[in-house]
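testing teh design pipeline on a random one, pls ignore if ur not involved
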């Protein structure tokens, strides 16, 4: 029997265009939930620059506490580069990902007609390890993973663990199994013999558990080239944190840019965080022209994921309707935004999605 318990979902706008693209993602979710009779308890929570003003911290303790009671949340982009220097003006990303054990960042890339994609028929997903690697703000218990022993020398620590590698690889294998059953792991074990070597070993160890999945590997620099020339040859791609960060932006560039780059942060099944790949785009904030696709699609992925993980069939159907409505809106040049060859803006795109949902 389907679980009809209300889903508890947080709304965290983030900064800059976050205040434009998160509310409309909630609007279309509400409409889809109504359509399929899905109960959702929404909880708006302070975060980012506005939270610094109102609560004295970019990630107020009350926000962190409230998140612990939720099934998932929508996190808008964070403009931390513009935060003032100080202990209360931190980038919340690493804390959220670490604290909630959101170790896999699922970033799909898909081409659509007429929006300026460099290739047709692209449909791949990069699964990026989220909590270790080279990122100095999350690879240490205390302090930063970067050191400057003297003015001439800077060192960066890259952390690769067996557990971290194994669990992100497993998430990718599971995803591959639901898709075209092809997994490619990306590394550079020719140079990083121990660290990438460990990641490779863990991917290889899991392969026998997934005999139905075709597994291969590509060295990261070769992959960067092949992604541009032949993106259709990939299905699910798994890699370490920084490689994944760079390659997923490259992938977005193939299909219309950052406005087309959704993402979902997942862990071991408890909670899920919808977070688009792009930043807060302060250059276009406040003008109503931001492309809400990536945020809407991230939100849609969250409901689909929750539908499956909580046994909530309505949420699965809700995700399917949202997918159809969003895809259809992308085909409407009057509705879609300028970055993807449209004549519309955030509001017209949203209206088109809502219209399609109600059809
Ligand atoms: P971060 O390092 O925080 O990820 P970034 O340096 O990658 O940020 P973004 O804020 O992601 O920068 O934006 C890069 C450019 O892409 C911006 O100048 C913006 O014009 C464009 N862009 C990003 N997101 C969108 C969007 N949703 N709609 C339209 N344009 C966008």
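output:
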């Amino acid at each position: 029997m389907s679980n009809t318990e209300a889903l508890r979902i947080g709304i965290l706008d983030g900064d800059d265009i976050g205040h434009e693209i998160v509310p409309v993602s909630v609007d279309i979710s509400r409409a889809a939930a109504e359509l399929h009779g899905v109960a959702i308890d929404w909880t708006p929570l302070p975060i980012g620059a506005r939270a610094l003003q109102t609560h004295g911290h970019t990630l107020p303790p009350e926000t962190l506490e409230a998140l612990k009671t939720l099934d998932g949340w929508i996190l808008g982009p964070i403009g931390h580069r513009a935060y003032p220097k100080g202990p209360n003006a931190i980038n919340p990303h690493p804390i959220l990902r670490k604290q909630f054990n959101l170790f896999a960042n699922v970033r799909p890339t898909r081409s659509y007609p007429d929006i300026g994609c460099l290739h047709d028929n692209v449909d791949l997903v990069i699964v990026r390890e989220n909590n270790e690697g080279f990122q100095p703000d999350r690879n240490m218990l205390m302090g930063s993973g970067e050191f400057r022993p003297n003015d001439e020398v800077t060192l960066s620590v890259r952390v690769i663990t067996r557990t971290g590698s194994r669990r992100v690889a497993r998430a990718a294998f599971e995803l591959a199994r639901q898709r075209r059953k092809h997994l490619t792991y990306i590394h550079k074990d020719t140079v990083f013999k121990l660290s990438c070597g460990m990641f490779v070993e863990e991917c290889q160890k899991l392969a026998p558990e997934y005999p139905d999945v075709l597994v291969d590997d590509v060295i990261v620099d070769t992959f960067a080239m092949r992604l541009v020339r032949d993106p259709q040859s990939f299905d699910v791609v798994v890699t370490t944190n920084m490689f994944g960060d760079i390659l997923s932006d490259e992938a977005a560039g193939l299909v219309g840019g950052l406005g087309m780059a959704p993402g979902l942060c997942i862990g071991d099944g408890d909670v899920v965080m919808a977070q688009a790949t792009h930043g807060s785009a302060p250059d276009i904030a406040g003008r109503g022209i931001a492309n809400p696709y990536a945020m809407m699609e991230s939100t849609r992925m969250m409901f689909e994921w929750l539908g499956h993980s909580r046994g909530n069939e309505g949420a699965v159907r809700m995700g399917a309707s949202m997918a159809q409505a969003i895809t259809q809106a992308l085909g409407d040049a009057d509705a879609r935004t300028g970055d993807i060859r449209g004549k519309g803006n955030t509001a017209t795109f949203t209206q088109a999605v809502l219209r399609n949902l109600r059809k």
